[in-house]
Amino acid sequence: GCRTLKLSDLTAKQETFKPLHPDLGEVEGLEFTVVSPFSLEHSKASGRIHPEIFGKKSKVDQDASWKIFQAEAIMVGWKGLEDDDGEPLKFTAKECAKVFRNPEYFWMVSAVNDHLAKKKGYLQTITRRLDAMSE
């Protein structure tokens, strides 16, 4: 039969996942927490799209900036990251931007974008939004 869902089953939930490092695979203790790309939080964060993303000269730069921006917009926490002195690295949007915009840590951005890509309706929605913006 047809299964009905309670309204509360249909909330856009936060998720925690283990980002995969290109060489090390799963890193012991490292976890990222992201909001759903369909949540109000993400909508507000991605509403702050920097015009410079679309002003970039090459399509490649645009694409990389977009991925970084996307990753920053849905990240709300991490666990298992330490600074070079061995102190736990506290998650803040500012700290996240610093890490994600460093080319050495672009793999983290890719991991977040891969996680996003698994959301069924998400890529279609975002592609349409991007097309509309770049017109």
Task: Give a brief description.
This protein is α+β, with helices and mostly antiparallel strands. It is built from 6 helices and 5 strands.
Work out the number of β strands: 5
Average residue-wise pLDDT: 82
Q: What characteristic shape results from the CA principal axes?
A: globular
Low-confidence stretches: none
H-E string: EEEEHHHEHHH
| Quaternary form | single chain
* Alpha plus pi helix count: 6
Radius of gyration: 16 Å
Largest sheet: 3 strands, antiparallel
Helix content: 40-55%
Q: What structural class is derived from the secondary structure elements?
A: alpha+beta
Spatial ordering of strands, largest sheet: 1-4-5
Kindly, what is the distance between the CA atoms of the first and last residues, rounded to a whole number of angstroms?
A: 45 Å
Strand content: 5-15%
Question: Could you characterize the architecture of this molecule?
Answer:
With 135 residues, this protein is of the alpha+beta class. The protein has helices spanning 40-46, 51-55, 59-74, 93-100, 106-117, 122-133; strands at residues 15-17, 20-21, 25-26, 31-34, 75-79. A hairpin with a 3-residue loop joins strand 2 (20-21) and strand 3 (25-26). Helix 1 packs antiparallel against helix 3 and helix 3 (59-74) crosses helix 5 (106-117). The longest helix has 16 residues, at 59-74. The mean pLDDT is 82.
